[in-house]
Amino acid sequence: MSEVNINEDLVKERKKCTFDVEELIHLVDGGKHNTLERKKVEQYVLSIKELKDDVPEEYLSHKERYENSVRKGSILFMVLMKGILERKRNKDEGISYNYKIINGVVKDVTPFMLHFGMFLPTLASQASPEQQREWLKKGSQMIGTYAQTELGHGTFLRGLETTATYDADTEEFIIHSPNLTSYKWWPGGLAQTVNHCIVMAQLYIKGKNHGIHPFLVQIRDIETHMPLPGIKVGDIGPKLGFQTANNGFLGFDNYRIPRMNMLMKNSQVLKDGTYVKAKNDKLTYGTMVFVRVTIVADVAYELARAATIAVRYAAVRHQSKPKPNEPEPQILDYLTQQHKLFIAVSTSHAFRIVGRWLWSTYTKPEPQILDYVTQQHKLFIAVSTSHAFRIVGRWLWSTYTKVVADIRHGNMDHLPELHALACCLKAVCSKDASVCVEQCRFACGGHGYMQSSNLPIIYGIVTATVTYEGEHTVMLLQTARYLVKAYKQASEGKSLTPTVAYMAKYLKNGSHCWQNTPEGIIGGFQAVAAGKTKEACESLFRHAHARAVLCEMFWKEIQRISSTVSPSLAIVLEQLAELYLKYWALEKRGDMLMYSNITKEDISSLQRRYVELLALIRPNAVGIVDAFDIRDEILCSTLGAYDGRVYERLMEEAMKSPLNKEPVNQSFHKYIKPLLIQAKL
Ligand SMILES: CC(C)(COP(=O)(O)OP(=O)(O)OC[C@H]1O[C@@H](n2cnc3c(N)ncnc32)[C@H](O)[C@@H]1OP(=O)(O)O)[C@@H](O)C(=O)NCCC(=O)NCCSC(=O)CCCC(=O)O
Ligand SMILES: Cc1cc2nc3c(=O)[nH]c(=O)nc-3n(C[C@H](O)[C@H](O)[C@H](O)COP(=O)(O)OP(=O)(O)OC[C@H]3O[C@@H](n4cnc5c(N)ncnc54)[C@H](O)[C@@H]3O)c2cc1C
């Protein structure tokens, strides 16, 4: 982009960057090849002119917004189906480029998200090979979603009430919603978009309940899209975010499906009604593990969007006058002396000097808000957290693929550890990301509250991850259950799986010997997790294990990556990782005091180094967020665009308000004028 139209603060910021932004872009993408591929996809999709909106989404009604997102989502769907863009998952992190590009197509969430995110993955992982051949074949007319949650139950899956009763005479299942609370509630795309669902229902054979199982259910006619007889389906209405996700409700009235529509890879129901149990009944929960794993990298990306907007804006925005400087030490320093002798002269000098200082203060430009340490404190943790989640998300994805490969060969040994890891990392990353996005919004002051800044929409997307795919507290409690077991094994001298091996060290050494180094902080978090597990105090210890894993994996990976990149980039990466560790050590200093021998001096020195790190990162802040390399069309923000034309864009967007199309709105004549007339009387 030519620098002619770029805000001059941003030009200066980019000039003072000490590392090669391009190099970091390649690192973030997982290699230059991926960057080129991503850019190709972006260029292709973002130049489809039908994907541009005449009116910004947020001015449309609930219905129009849905219709517009289906229109645009269908164009993208078509592109994917035609194979013009092969929708492949980036093998490093489980996220496809197209998934990311979706933010450039629909600002909020597309109604097709669940089709790609859960419906197809469930068929791929839980249907038998023959079923997969049938259902995943080319030309399939299925658009689907994952219908598990009900009005009455979301967390407690054993409490789900939808039933699937086997009728051996007709070789069918009868799907039924026995009461209001058994209605499916929430699935994305369910309301008006999909024609099929994966329905999780209690399996009954000859009066015996075998627990919940997945079924493929057609709910609408392929040609007319009318709900099929026995199906009641609709929209659940507006929400905090996800306005275009088309979340729906669904009820069944003794609705029949063929026997072969139960997904039979893990358990089976034979023609005569014989039930064949799965090797491990938790395999039915497999899609949830998959999605929890991908959420870590998803929120890293959303956080990168929020941080890019807030950091660029903070470099463009100027606010407040600097503190007055101390007067220069001139003859005025001897004021008492002169006052005695030359009161008039000294007063004249005093006024001249004070007047000059006042003038320089008056004419001095306002500082960029990015120069305030408080602002850096709000923003840089968001930047480093995005990197931490991306890196840990990649590691989690590779752990996931290894465990899934083991499971394919019949080895389930590592499933409990993977489940515990996915639960706590999903919980902590989704919550931290929401807090950081909200901080980014605060950091943009009033303008951050504008929809056109896109921060409210990003917040709506991210805060949903705290709830969906396993509510935050519930996920932490699942990990807690695993930790208590691990601690018990450690105290019996049994060997432990790698991510909890630190328990044995704590048991042996008691309290952790504090050091202000990254390794010392990681050890500190492990001691906190082990110490709290020991106390088995569920309300307290749930975050610590995830924090220990995040700090350890982020720091180790950055150490490894640093040896492979140029020295100037290695410095920046280490500063970001160190900031992350210092920030959390300071946030959790109370815990560290409890479970290590950290001193008041250690804490002061951590604090000093933290402030030093803010100052070290400051000159590169804009370069670092530029290296997230998020195109303006995908940022969708008046405050965060590459050119920094913040005020012009705010005004341009405001002018799109339908209220600004006429000088006087009709409501004046209808309501305000009669009011004024009444007031006159
Ligand atoms: C809370 C639990 C885990 C409890 O399950 P439960 O059957 O009552 O379990 P239990 O009998 O107490 O047994 C616990 C046991 O089962 C294990 N386990 C639990 N889940 C898994 C798993 N996924 N993989 C492997 N193992 C799993 C646990 O570790 C326990 O093992 P243990 O007994 O300790 O050996 C479960 O019910 C659950 O996962 N609830 C959360 C529901 C959820 O995540 N729903 C997601 C709906 S889809 C969605 O939100 C999509 C949004 C996407 C979008 O819009 O983008
Ligand atoms: C935007 C969005 C999209 C969604 N998409 C889908 C979808 O596509 N398909 C689908 O099937 N579902 C979907 N869901 C539903 C989602 O998975 C559930 O909302 C989620 O699993 C939480 O369940 P719940 O709503 O029943 O909350 P509840 O379980 O009722 O939680 C309420 C409170 O109770 C607490 N609580 C519950 N159980 C325990 C416990 N055992 N111990 C301690 N505290 C507990 C929780 O911590 C929470 O504070 C979606 C939800 C949202 C918000």
Structure description:
One of its GO terms (molecular function) is FAD binding. 53% of the residues lie in helices and 8% in strands. The chain is an alpha+beta fold and 681 residues long. The strands form 3 sheets. Strands 1, 2, 3, 5, 6 and 9 form a 6-stranded mixed sheet that branches. A 3-stranded antiparallel sheet has the order 4-8-7, with no helix packed on it. A hairpin with a 2-residue loop joins β5 and β6. It is globular, with a radius of gyration of 29 Å.
Give the topology.
Elements: H1 8-15, H2 21-29, H3 32-46, H4 62-81, H5 97-105, H6 113-126, H7 129-135, E1 144-147, E2 163-167, E3 172-176, E4 184-185, E5 196-205, E6 208-218, E7 231-235, E8 248-252, E9 255-258, E10 268-269, E11 275-276, H8 286-316, H9 335-341, H10 343-363, H11 373-408, H12 415-443, H13 455-467, H14 472-491, H15 502-509, H16 518-535, H17 544-562, H18 567-587, H19 589-595, H20 600-617, H21 621-626, H22 632-635, H23 646-654, H24 666-680
Parallel strand pairs: 1-5, 2-5
Antiparallel strand pairs: 2-3, 3-9, 4-8, 5-6, 7-8, 10-11
This protein binds glutaryl-coenzyme A (GRA) and flavin-adenine dinucleotide.
